[in-house]
Amino acid sequence: MPADRKRDTRQDEAVRETFPASDPPASMASGAARAVPPGEMLDRPGPGVPGAVALHRRFPDGDAAKLALESLVRQGPVDRAAAEIQHADGGAELRLAVPAEDAERIRALLTKA
Description:
By secondary structure, the chain is an alpha+beta fold. The protein has four helices and three strands, in the order H-H-E-H-E-E-H. The protein has helices at 5-15, 38-43, 62-75, 103-112; strands at residues 52-59, 83-88, 91-99. Strands 1-3-2 form a three-stranded antiparallel beta sheet, covered by helices on one side. Strand 2 and strand 3 form a beta hairpin. The protein is elongated and about 60 Å long. The N and C termini lie far apart (55 Å).
C-alpha cells in the first residue's frame, strides 16, 4: 500500500510544536533546551517522607552503593528521591529516609544488599 505523503505532511505540521510543551527542542532559536535551568531544579527540595527514619550503610565503592539502591527501590519500595549516595575516602555511604512503619523491613533489606 503506497504511503500518502500529503497525509504525512499534514500530520507532521499539526504536531510539530506540540510535544513536549515544557521542554522545547534545543534547535529552537529561543535558546536552551530546558524550560527551567538545571541549577533551579537542583535547588528545589525533594519530596519529604513524613516521619522519616534515617538509615545508612557503608559500601566499598560507589558502584556497590548504586546497586544496593536499585535493589531497594525494587524490593522496598524506597523513594529514590529520599536516597543519597555520599562518596568518602575509600568507599561510599548510602543514606535513606524511609517511613517509620517500614524502617525495620527496609533496614533488613539494606543489610542484605
